Amino acid sequence: EPFYANYNGFATASGVKVVPVEANIENGFALPPVSAFEAAITSKTKGILICNPGNPTGYLYSIEELEQLRDIVLKHDLFLIADEVYREFTYDGAKHYSVLAMDGLEQHAIVVDSFSKRYSMCGARIGCLVSKNKIFLATAMKFAQARLSPPTYAQIASEAALKTAQSYFDDVNAEYVERRNVLVDGLNSIDGVFCPKPKGAFYAVASFPVESAEHFAEWLLSEFDHHGKTLMMAPAAGFYAKPELGRQQARLAYVLNVKDLKECIEIIRHALQVYPGTIK
Prior knowledge:
By secondary structure, the chain is α/β, with parallel strands linked by helices. The protein has helices at about 5-15, 35-40, 65-75, 135-145, 150-160, 165-190, 215-220, 260-275, and strands spanning about 45-50, 80-85, 110-115, 125-130, 205, 235, 250-255. The chain has two domains: about 5-160, Type I PLP-dependent aspartate aminotransferase-like (Major domain) (Aspartate Aminotransferase, domain 2, 3-Layer(aba) Sandwich), CATH 3.40.640; about 165-275, Aspartate Aminotransferase, domain 1. The protein contains eight helices and seven strands. The radius of gyration is 20 Å and the shape is globular. The relative contact order is 0.13.
């Protein structure tokens, strides 16, 4: 943790217990030590779930970190489930490594993927579950067959999207790099704010000099404006399973243009100067 909040919701609905392993903002949400995973594994553990690159953190796991996870799942005969929805969005020359391509994980790797982010078509609800484990796929197929109305038109549109030229992604990634730099550098220029620079996706988690980022976010929307404008951000506590974590953090998505992002930085800067809960 922090992790995509819907993981917890779907797990609860399915009777699955999520045991979080905490990553820290201080080191940019890098993979926690192996000992932390070992301490969380019991005879009931079925797999390890990661999002790579991550939502909400934007963290991109290195091959060395993925190899550490591979060793753990092989040692305990677990699945390594990777949400790779943001795999096309990587920056600074960093490379995304899929768990499907890793030696030794042929029967252990499961990938969740989607057209939603890569092709900006979230409303289509088209994705896939990929594994070389035939027993797992046979079980998953039983659930898939319960869906009696496949989104045929969205599937046709998604097939066409697969023909998108690489130049499109090159342009998109270049734009995201500029937006990320504007957002992260701007946040870090504000007294008391810390934001690690992510190498993937289009999210960043920042810590703020406040006791409650949730209250700060609410205050921004209900009681503050700067030249008639304000902004909305997602309190990061909602991305943690442990209620005491992430209280001073918020997720920001750099999906706005550079001009608007610069304006957002100034809104936050001025807001923290007058917010009653700012820690001086």
